[in-house]
Specification:
The longest helix has about 35 residues. Helices cover about 45% and strands about 15% of the residues. It has a 6-stranded mixed sheet with strand order 7-6-8-5-9-11. A 5-stranded mixed sheet has the order 2-1-3-10-4, with helices on both faces.
């Protein structure tokens, strides 16, 4: 006895048997080609395109500013105008302050802490919880260790007393509040505006990124002094925002491959940027930049004020408190082994903010 499929059933079988359509993504970045941070984005795209067959997904990458202005990348991904965008989460703290600790911390996490927390202590889920509010999936794929510190035109910063009254370009919500407590004045501006602002005397000094990125921005040409360490941003995270509908259109295998590429890029980025930072440090010295370092007592005072500032900022937003609580819980948990393995350990266990206080604010 013969069995015949109806037209609808035959169509369903045909669709099920057909190979998935190849996805073609457009991706851009918040970084212009002139700033070395864009190499983190480019390396991820190269990995992803090498690992994923062309009949599954191809990512076409455009330098920052070539498709949309840097500040509009978030909205372009959220709306689906483009499928993906490389970013630094702190740029979106105006939308939700929980983006801030996902990007950086003052005197708290180093780069290894972010990697540990993201990979094994629940951090990855929190990135997706925060970005998920805006219809996006997020893959952290880049990390840099602490930033350079402040570069100034006419006055060296040797102690925090020297910060008083200075107009300093500084990004970050908590960072601005902390600088204010130390007597300085935060001036917010995009990275591409810093050089001319220093040159014209609009600001007295600036921070931007790691030494290699600062060198690529030409800051050695318009500043004489460099105050280390970069306590304001003890590490930074970068990643890719992916429109949720575009993510859902991928096969599970392709999704998993993108996650693997992001993890590989995360580890690569640390080694790459630390090597480049080392090279750029020498270049700044050779260029005649006067480099100073804050003493340990000053850094202890900054830690105390940073803890206070983090507690205040976290308690303004339950989701921000949730992120910070997870981070501080990680620090306390990991400190048991990290301190036992000193001095052959990975970084330091800071005397950080009050976990119970922040947990209470998380609701």
């Amino acid at each position: 006895m013969k069995h015949y499929l109806t037209g609808a059933a035959l169509a369903a079988v045909t669709v099920a048997a057909a190979p998935a359509m190849a996805e073609n993504w457009t991706m851009t970045s918040t970084w212009p080609s002139s700033l070395e941070l864009i190499e983190i984005d480019k390396h991820f795209v190269e990995l992803a395109n090498a690992m994923i067959p062309d009949d599954q997904l191809t990512i076409e990458f455009f330098d920052g500013g070539s498709l949309v202005p840097a500040g509009e990348v978030f909205g372009a991904v959220e709306s689906g105008t483009i499928q993906a965008g490389g970013d630094w989460p702190g740029y979106w703290a105006g939308r939700d302050s929980a983006f801030s600790p996902l990007a950086t911390t003052s005197a708290l996490f180093n780069a290894v802490d972010y990697i540990n927390w993201i990979q094994e202590w629940g951090g990855a889920d929190l990135y997706n919880e925060v970005y998920g509010k805006f219809g996006m999936v997020y893959l952290p794929y880049g990390v840099t260790n602490n930033e350079s510190g402040f570069r100034t035109v006419d006055k060296p910063i040797v102690t925090t007393e020297d910060l008083k009254g200075l107009r300093l370009r500084l990004s970050g919500y908590e960072q601005g509040k902390l600088l204010e407590k130390l007597g300085g004045n935060q001036v917010s501006m995009a990275g591409g505006e810093i050089y001319q602002s220093l040159e014209r005397g609009v600001i007295d000094g600036a921070e931007f990124s790691t030494p290699n990125v600062d060198w690529s921005g030409g800051f050695q040409q318009v500043t004489k002094y460099w105050s280390t360490p970069g306590w304001h941003q003890s590490a930074s995270v970068f990643g890719v925002m992916i429109n949720k509908a575009s993510w859902d259109a991928l096969t599970p295998e392709t999704q998993e491959t993108l996650k693997v590429a992001a993890s590989a890029n995360l580890l690569w980025s640390l080694a790459f940027t630390e090597k480049r930072a080392t090279e750029a440090y020498a270049e700044f010295k050779e260029a005649g930049t006067e480099i100073t370092r804050l003493d340990d007592a000053t850094l202890e005072n900054i830690q105390m004020l940073a803890n206070e500032t983090i507690e205040e900022a976290a308690c303004e937003n339950p989701l921000s408190a949730k992120v910070y609580a997870s981070m501080i819980a990680y620090l306390q948990d990991y400190s048991q082994w990290r301190d036992a393995s000193a001095p052959y350990n990975l970084g330091r266990s800071p005397n950080g903010p009050d976990l119970a206080k922040i947990q209470a604010c998380a609701g």
